[in-house]
Write a structure and sequence with these properties.
4 helices
């Protein structure tokens, strides 16, 4: 019985993750245009992008979305230097992060489709 309860709880968490992952990616994506530069807004938007992607990294593989977790980790690796340095992205960094977020979106959509 305990195993059934655990499986049910995991299914609820998995469903909640599935319902929020696209929004987290979108929020990180929307932060990018203002995340370039040296002003306080850029630093804040880098933090938004980092936080949203970081939330995906830990949960995705745990609830059965391993490819999404891997893609999120790749994006996080690109964002983390600016985040830790409390700085905005350079234009070239922002383009690379944008590509990583596009990949993350594609991978997540694929895994979400498999869930249906």
């Amino acid at each position: 019985m305990e195993l059934d309860s655990f499986a049910e709880h995991l299914a609820v968490i998995r469903k909640r993750f599935a319902s929020t992952v696209e929004g987290k990616i979108a929020e990180a994506w929307e932060a990018l245009p203002q995340a370039v530069g040296d002003d306080a807004t850029a630093v804040e938007k880098v933090a938004v992008a980092y936080q949203q992607v970081h939330r995906i990294c830990g949960v995705a593989p745990t609830v059965g979305f391993p490819a999404t977790g891997k893609a999120a980790r790749s994006a996080e690796d690109l964002i983390i230097q600016a985040f830790r340095g409390k700085r905005g992205f350079t234009l070239s960094e922002a383009k690379i992060v944008q590509q990583a977020l596009e990949t993350l979106r594609t991978v997540a959509q694929s895994e979400l489709e498999l869930m249906k």
